[in-house]
From TrEMBL:
Organism: Paractinoplanes abujensis
Protein name per Swiss-Prot or TrEMBL: Uncharacterized protein (TIGR03089 family)
Pfam family, one: AMP-binding
Domain AMP-dependent synthetase/ligase, residue spans: 12-88
Length: 234
């Protein structure tokens, strides 16, 4: 049984590396991005390599991720956890690294700061805030295989919660939401900001994710059919 989030991701990728694991829609911009298990794993590995090899971070360090639900947010969070770093989504001030959007007024002491516009096709930003690097440009410089970091069940994963505690919470949420193994969950990103809901719970349950930002209710039925969705969480 998996006791850490990197183990949960590895199991999800092994089950079917070629099939879509995370599909992202933004009905405001028209963006649709589909990531197979292998593709998502590559982004996660690049992020983890950037944190470990590029920044020298590891167990005991923290990364603030003040981004809305998005496929890049998923890659960053999973990369943070794979590197053995603790993710913070509500307390950026004291973090060792920061991942945020350029329009957010985030107060932090982090020496390493990354911004992303969460743009279609992972396009870079045209203008960067002072003191920030562009996540999508920087992360591409790192390898798409991560050898792994020593991550234990009792290590902190999300705020003060350990990997074991996050997995237990995700299992409970999967049961509450009705997520089943092999299912395909469509979730409205707006009311479900907590990554346990939109990311970890479906991965723990063995389901794939259709994550929708700015969801247009008129499109839900056709999307359920086209994406072969088995569960709608909205």
């Amino acid at each position: 049984m998996e006791t850490t989030i990197p183990q949960v991701l590895a199991s999800a990728v092994r089950r079917d590396p070629a099939s879509p694991l995370l599909t992202f829609y933004d009905d405001a911009s028209g963006d649709r991005t589909e990531l197979s298990g292998a593709t998502l794993d590559n982004w996660v590995a690049k992020t983890a390599n950037m944190l470990v090899d590029g920044l020298g971070l590891g167990s005991g360090d923290t990364a603030a991720v003040t981004l809305p639900p998005h496929w890049q947010t998923a890659a960053i969070l999973l990369g943070v956890w794979s590197a053995g770093v603790t993710a913070k989504i509500n307390d950026p001030e004291s973090a060792d690294a920061l991942f945020t959007a350029p329009d957010q007024n985030t107060v932090t002491k982090a020496p390493d700061r990354y911004a992303t516009g969460l743009l279609p096709f992972a396009m870079p930003l045209r203008e960067l805030p002072d003191g920030f690097a562009d996540y999508v440009l920087e992360v591409r410089q790192f390898g798409d295989h991560f050898p792994g970091a020593p991550v234990a069940a009792e290590d902190r994963a999300l705020g003060n919660r350990t990997h074991a505690e996050v997995i237990a919470a995700a299992q409970a949420r999967a049961t509450e939401l009705g997520i089943t193994p092999g299912g395909r969950m469509l979730i409205d990103a707006t009311p479900y900001f907590d990554p346990i809901d939109w990311l970890v719970a479906p991965l723990v349950a063995g389901a794939s994710i259709v994550l929708c930002a700015n969801l247009d209710p008129v499109k839900t039925n056709s999307r359920v059919e086209s994406e072969k969705v088995t569960l709608v969480v909205a």
